[in-house]
Write a structure and sequence with these properties.
The structure is a homodimer. In chain A, strands 2-1-3-4-5-11 form a 6-stranded parallel β-sheet, sandwiched between helices. In chain A, helix 3 packs across helix 4. Chain A is elongated. Chain A has 3 domains: 57 residues, lambda repressor-like DNA-binding domains (434 Repressor (Amino-terminal Domain)); 127 residues, Rossmann fold; 137 residues, Response regulator (Rossmann fold, 3-Layer(aba) Sandwich). By secondary structure, chain A is α/β, with parallel strands linked by helices. The first copy, chain A, is built from 13 helices and 12 strands. In chain A, 42% of the residues lie in helices and 14% in strands. Chains A and B meet through helix 5, helix 6, strand 2, helix 7 and helix 12 of A and helix 5, helix 6, strand 2, helix 7 and helix 12 of B. Chain A binds a DNA duplex through helix 3 and helix 5.
DNA sequence: ACGGATTTCGACAACGATGTCAACGCAGTG
DNA sequence: CACTGCGTTGACATCGTTGTCGAAATCCGT
């Protein structure tokens, strides 16, 4: 159906195209395109005519069509496969990506995986089908070999928080092992030798790393970990609370806890409160959370820096998009132990020194 | 440049197109398209050949090109103009949108405005340029007339948390006025008559509504609000803390506070702690926050339900996208007062009844 | 006034995909 | 045997935009 002038006038209900603008301005679509894109070499008279037509028709360029035609094919969009856009870690990461992307006029597509491996693939597919220029992935599945094709096809893929398996790619990880070890060293230094471990799903790579750090640190002090004081697979606050209740009311309860994830920390705190042990039993949590400093006692944590991780990931992405080449590299972002009170409750084995 | 067979074999570095698939399978692009889209009326032999070619070339359809050609032109993407993807309100809203969108295979573009009116327009532009099928907007500017064109062009636009100005559109709002009034009634019922108000930027519509509710509730009880106990434009935790410190150490300090926003609430709590007044001065905050129940005293709040607001907004969007028509409507999502302790500290005017 | 350089402009094809439609092959019918 | 009808298939145009390239108009210096 050809576009006639009278149609254009009547067509307030539909979006104007460059053809419509060109027709109204009495120029070719190509010239209209030139004006819209601010190219030089168009006579002032035509520039004016096109600009008036643009305003009159409220023309908005179709960026997807433009990207399709353009040589680079860039869509100026990055896909972020996150754990859950609503949790603080993911959303801080998301925000960091956005901040860097904003300076380049790039948008972020974000989606939540909820630890569902199938969902991870679905989201990656959805983002690649929409021609995302790059992907940021917090993997939930146990293998990301399916991403090899995207990477060889030139799409930068950066893994964040958890390392890739089955494929070589850049990764930005917290130093989970060192962070967990620091927590344990801190507790031992405050006189604890019987330190309970409460952790997330053992399928999650970071959880495994933190357990490893916990065990290594204990072994550094010649302490043999008590198997029944190590509990995995606590994926909800309530599961963590139940586990902490059980351990604390058992015979020979731990004198301190290392809680290896946010919700686990909070669940454990609830349990200790209920048992009125929160001023007696020490606790260090992995991953900081808002208001940790306002609780009684304030909660000592090993803080990650998800915002910084996002900044690093975004930097890698844009360096790759700018054409830089390098071997896939893993970047460790350090953690920081923040003593606030709960981790400084002294235990029964004060240091001799 | 034409696609030759040997090019296809060598072209592992570039993304395969439907042309490549068709060529390798020995069929026309149209037939390949039919197979990829699962249309009927293709002989089993060709279906097989195409599927093999798809697998061999790791073909992934270009959804943006498809959307461009398709009659509906839907991109299966919704733009969300949020306050800040990293704050709990926005991210809960975001997540609700995602949950509903997921069931329709629709993705969410999200961006943060940070209360910057210019940024609001930029994001809307970016989303419409990318042909988002619909927009969810938490406005920060004082006028959204610029969106009228999108709406008449048939793009559903739903305002959330704050009403639109200068344009008619659906809106999903918390019942700010009633919620604020409920907080004040609650405090009065516990013996308070001198209730300080600490609020966010007065340019934000919700802040104005909450102040209005506060004033009306006071007036219902025949209380004249004290002008110097009303402080606006507290947009950071620290500004709120400073204001609470100032009011509380002034002569004739309020016996209770209504803090009209999240960070303001937390800032006020910090101030009261520092002055050791947190067990003496009552406080009700607007908007719930995690761990409010673990503080000492636990914090009484008027809870909004951003997740529900997102669900309602998403429902409106998809009903519009499905072709339903109705006059723009405002949906009020009720708030809920959650007594936890800080709001039940009794004041100097216990009720006679 | 002339030739050549420069500027301005539009026709055309193409990006990757699909709607339209006509052509083809093959079976069944009169 | 010619004809109809159905199921397959591909040629072509098109979505909105821009890269390429040559034509036309304008400019300059001599």
């Amino acid at each position: 159906m050809p576009h006639h002038a009278e149609e254009i006038a009547a067509a307030v209900t539909t979006r104007a195209t460059l053809r419509d603008v060109a027709m109204l301005a009495g120029v070719s679509p190509k010239t209209a395109s030139r004006v819209v894109n601010g190219e030089t070499g168009v006579s002032p008279a035509k520039v004016n005519a096109v600009q008036r037509a643009v305003a009159q028709l409220n023309y908005r360029p179709n960026f997807t069509a433009s990207a399709l035609r353009r040589s680079t094919g860039r869509t100026a969009a990055i896909g972020a496969v996150l754990e859950n856009v609503a949790n603080p870690f993911s959303s801080a990461l998301h925000r960091a990506l956005e901040d860097v992307a904003r300076s380049r006029d790039v948008m972020i597509f974000a989606g939540s995986v909820d630890e569902d491996p199938a969902r991870e693939k679905i989201l990656v597919q959805a983002f690649t089908a929409r021609q995302a220029d790059a992907l940021v992935v917090v993997p939930a599945s146990d293998n990301q070999a399916y991403l090899a094709h995207e990477i060889t096809a030139g799409t930068p893929v950066i893994f964040v928080d958890r390392p890739p398996v089955g494929v070589l790619a850049d990764a930005v990880l917290a130093d989970n092992r060192a962070g967990a070890a620091a927590a344990v060293h801190h507790l031992v230094a405050h006189g604890h030798r019987d330190i309970g471990y409460l952790g997330d799903l053992s399928t999650i790579a970071t959880a495994a790393e933190r357990l490893q750090g916990y065990k290594e640190a204990l072994s550094d002090h010649g302490i043999r970990p008590q198997p029944d004081h190590i509990v995995h697979d606590l994926h909800t606050e309530d599961a963590a609370r139940a586990a902490a209740l059980r351990l604390t009311t058992g015979r020979r309860p731990p004198t301190a806890y290392f809680t290896a994830q946010n919700l686990v920390t909070i669940g454990a705190i609830r349990a200790l409160r209920e048992l009125h042990q929160h001023e007696q039993i020490a606790l260090v949590g992995f991953d900081d959370f808002p208001l940790a400093d306002l609780l009684q006692p304030a909660v000592t944590v090993v803080a990650q820096d998800p915002f910084r991780m996002g900044l690093v990931a975004a930097d890698l992405i844009f360096r790759r998009l700018d054409g830089q080449r390098w071997e896939p590299t893993t970047h460790l972002v350090p953690t920081r132990l923040i003593p606030r009170g709960s981790g400084e409750i002294t235990g029964p084995h004060p240091r001799q020194s």
